[in-house]
Amino acid sequence: MSIRAHFVALALLAGSAIGATAQSDIPNLVGTWTGTFTGGVRKGGGDLAPADATPTFVHEGMNRVYTLKIVEQNGRGIVGSWSSVKGSEDIQGVIRLDNQTVLFVDPDSYQSARILSPSELEFCNQTTNAKDRFAFCFLLKRQ
User: Fold this and answer.
1) What angle do CA 89, 90, 95 make, to 5 degrees?
2) Could you count the other beta carbons within 10 Å of the beta carbon of residue 24?
3) Greatest CA separation found in the chain?
4) What is the sign, positive or negative, of the torsion defined by CA atoms of 38, 66, 112, 51?
5) Judging by beta carbons within 10 Å of its beta carbon (0-12, 13-18, 19+), is residue 98 exposed, middle or buried?
6) Which structural domains are found in the chain, ordered by start?
7) Cα(43)–Cα(75) distance, rounded to whole angstroms?
8) Parallel, antiparallel or unpaired: strands 87-95 and 31-44
9) By three-state DSSP, how is residue 130 classified?
10) CA dihedral of 139, 107, 77, 143, whole degrees rounded to 10
11) Quick one: 92 exposed, middle or buried, by C-beta within 10 A (0-12, 13-18, 19+)?
12) Which of residues 34 and 51 earns the better pLDDT score?
């Protein structure tokens, strides 16, 4: 075998090892995560909260508890629901290649999350439609 062939073989092995490591580092997010607002603004109510007629600032200390329940994960794909005392919506998402950022969609919103630790997520919601406009975040803790 030529020296060039050895280098090609080594490069292929190194590339597959890096790919395997990236797959094995995918965080497992299955479980129940709960928390309250950290900040933002909302107008309207959506399906999960009472309606605000004017833009309302939300902040830490408000007693609205939200729950993200991830019931299934297959590699980077995740499926579950998110809810408040008023209702629940199905949610699905993907863990990005950085293994720290998660993108979600539900029937009427987009969400993103940043994995802060194995037990904490910063979970943010963005909604815009004819009656609602939200941009706010929560600190969710794994239960």
Assistant:
1) 125
2) 7
3) 75
4) negative
5) exposed
6) 28-142 (2.40.160.90)
7) 36
8) unpaired
9) coil
10) 30
11) middle
12) 34
Residue 97 tokens read as: 């290649």
Give percent of the chain above pLDDT 70: 80
Residue 44 tokens read as 């309207």
Amino acid identity of residue 107, one-letter, is P
When pLDDT is averaged across residues 114-121 and rounded to a whole number, the result is: 98
Section 13-17 average pLDDT:
51
For 18-26, what is the mean pLDDT? Answer: 64
Q: Map tokens 């729950």 to a residue.
A: 67
What percent helix, strand, coil does the chain show, rounded to 5?
15, 55, 30
Report pLDDT for 63.
79
